[in-house]
Design a protein that fits this description.
Length: 646
């Protein structure tokens, strides 16, 4: 698969305890099925060749020999299959028995990985039968035809033709312990960790297991393929649910239903994982003196090189059209409250520090100014200040409609702020005369003069009243440069600075439900109003003529671009690829390409505005503050990015 996506599979086939021939055939069938579906990496459960619940049958040489023969048959069946496969089996080595993962590829065993941490509590008694990897004496084993392969936990499997496709393995309890082998594996470059497991099912365990795997993949910035034993294992004392999970950097990509054996697929983005680790500037390496030798490469790790293939299957994982907005309604409510509180607390600190008597906000009847006013009211109430000291200024100009002006005044009154109306048309006309501009020439000067006049009014009022001007620009406008330099671009504190437009709507909707009554009615009307700067006169019916999204493009697309271009540094062609998947049936390829190119052009062109943007609190994973997340020269050239569109 292109763009760093590696298709993976967690396979829990039907099995019978100690019936090695039956289990071997089911494993072979699952390998062929997963390969046919484009899986480049397939993982099976712990001890799946014979079953985890064999008990003292593990002491029977007949069973162990049968398992070794079963592995031989599995290896033979993989000839011509370039899927990297991990199968679990008991293996004799150095006079001991080990619980192992066998790495198989294209008719060969690449390595055997013994389990390190053997649970010996509760229902588990693995030390009765198995030895730990810490007891290994020889690092090589001749498992089939005396062809020796590494027998160690310290091994990475690296695809020669897919950069970043680097895999390491651990087994069940290894994950649940304090010092999981996967910690070292990730430090040494493994982007995908596989776990062959047999975790019995008890009340609450699935939630804990899911949380553990999410946390491990997030902490290690890796993909994690967890394959669990399912129905077929002995139910003498336990049941097994086949709880398979595929995670990536703290997120669950795919998950099986409990008590349903089968194959679960997804794609892990190793390119993104590599980029994320680079962004974190080597945070995986310690500076302890005893680690220095290992950092130089003498780390005792084996590297096994294999050749993968490009999966031709369609991308199965889904990408949200609104990556800044949770899809779950309960999560969205929690997120909305948290974001509003972060905005509120940031403003509270600034008000305390400056000792400002009042704040001033320009209210347009649009989304951003409504959100800024809502946040300011929350801050004032939290500080015990009178909301009458919030001076909400409407400044009607040439493009102001009755609807937006009416909504502005109604919202100010409903929230208990003080309304002040100062028309700017006359001042702007005088300014046009002063600079010799023809008012009939409705160019950028015509538009920007109004925006700058409004900012001047707010700044001067703030000086006169001992107040603070609250900025309303959001993250999306900042990224696109959709603001007038030294106009609405400027403020004394920007509460919306890192809130994307797609999230702004949900924050307002959340607050509308919370406040209810007249405020809800007004905010609903604002949510249903076209997004516009209202700098050009209305149409003949008095409706908004200047529609922002007709000019700069749909914000739902731009926020998608912002997330993947800035948060994960995806290249334009990769963003195109996932955008086509996410917006299938909504936007065609031509439209996506048009606005993606426009995004890059605008983003580079308008960096100078971001280089001197006002203070504003960070609320999410993306911020464009020049003091925090984004440091970029104002004269950087976009040609490398725009070359993708030629």
């Amino acid at each position: 698969m292109k763009y760093g996506f590696v298709k993976v599979c967690a396979a829990t086939p039907e099995m019978r305890v100690a019936d090695v021939d039956f289990n071997t055939q089911k494993i072979i069938d699952a390998i062929k099925e997963s390969a046919a579906n484009g899986s480049q990496l397939t993982v099976f459960p712990e001890l799946c060749v014979c079953g985890y619940t064999c008990g003292d049958l593990f002491n029977q040489p007949v069973l162990i020999s049968a398992c070794e023969n079963g592995i031989r048959n599995i290896v033979e069946a993989t000839k011509g299959i370039k899927t990297l496969v991990f199968v679990g089996a008991p293996i004799r080595h150095d006079g001991k028995l080990f619980n192992c993962a066998i790495a198989i590829h294209n008719g060969k065993i690449l390595a055997v990985i013994p389990k390190t941490f053997l649970p010996n509590y509760g229902e588990f008694y693995e030390r009765r039968h198995f030895s730990s990897s810490t007891e290994v004496i020889m690092d090589y084993i001749g498992l089939i035809d005396k062809q020796f392969v590494p027998f160690t936990t310290k091994i990475l499997f690296m695809a020669s033709n897919c950069p970043g496709f680097t895999v390491a393995a651990e087994i069940c309890e290894d994950l649940w312990t304090v010092q999981s082998p996967s910690l070292k594996h990730a430090q040494r470059g493994a982007n995908i960790i596989v776990n062959l497991s047999c975790s019995d099912e008890t009340v609450g365990k699935a939630d804990y297991r899911r949380t553990l795997i999410k946390a491990q993949s997030g902490k290690l910035v890796c993909g994690y393929v967890y394959c669990d034993a399912g129905e077929g294992e002995s139910s003498t004392d336990m049941t097994f649910a086949g709880h398979n999970l595929i995670a990536e950097n703290g997120n669950i990509l795919a998950e099986s239903k409990l008590f349903e054996n089968g194959l679960v697929y997804s794609e892990i983005d190793v390119e993104m994982l590599e980029s994320e680790r680079c962004r974190m500037a080597g945070g995986y390496y310690t500076d302890l003196k005893e680690e220095k030798k290992e950092q130089r490469g003498d780390d005792g790790y084996y590297r096994s090189i294999f050749e993968t293939f490009e999966s031709e299957e369609d991308l199965s994982r889904k990408f949200s059209q609104t990556p800044f907005v949770p899809e779950n309604s309960a999560t969205l409510s929690d997120r909305s409250e948290l974001v509003l509180t972060i905005q509120q607390k940031g403003l509270e600190k600034r008000l305390k520090h400056t000792g400002s008597k009042t704040v001033l906000i320009g209210i347009s009847g649009g989304l951003d100014s409504a959100l800024a006013l809502l946040v300011t009211c929350r801050a004032f109430k939290s500080l015990g200040k009178n909301t009458k000291d919030i001076i909400a200024v409407t400044m009607p100009g040439y493009g102001t409609t009755k609807k937006t002006k009416g909504n502005s005044l109604r919202l100010i009154e409903a929230l208990g702020a003080t309304a002040k109306t100062i028309p700017v048309s006359g001042s702007v006309l005088k300014h046009f005369k002063d600079i010799g501009h023809d008012p009939d020439d409705r160019n950028v000067t015509y538009e920007n003069a109004q925006a700058r006049m409004r900012t001047m009014v707010l700044m001067d009022l703030a000086n006169d009243m001992g107040g603070l001007v609250i900025g309303t620009c959001d993250l999306s406008e900042t990224a696109l440069g959709w603001s007038t330099y030294n106009g609405d671009h400027m403020a004394m504190y920007g509460v919306n600075a890192s809130v994307p437009k797609t999230l702004v709507k949900h924050l307002i909707a959340y607050e509308a439900e919370k406040l209810g009554g007249e405020v809800k009615k007004i905010l609903t009307s604002i949510l249903n109003t076209e997004i516009s700067p209202e700098l050009l006169p209305p149409d003949e019916n008095g409706n908004i003529a200047q529609k922002t999204e007709d000019i700069v493009g749909p914000y739902i697309l731009h926020d998608f671009f912002i997330y993947y271009a800035l948060r994960y540094a995806f290249a334009p062609d990769k963003i195109m690829f996932i955008a086509e998947t996410a917006f299938e049936g909504v936007f065609d390829k031509k439209t996506i390409k048009k606005w993606l190119k426009s995004f890059y052009e605008r983003f580079f062109k308008h960096q100078f505005k971001r280089s001197c943007m006002p203070d504003g609190v960070k609320v999410g994973s993306v911020s464009l503050s020049p003091r925090g997340d984004w440091r970029m020269p104002s004269d950087a050239v976009a040609s490398v990015w725009l070359d993708y569109f030629k």
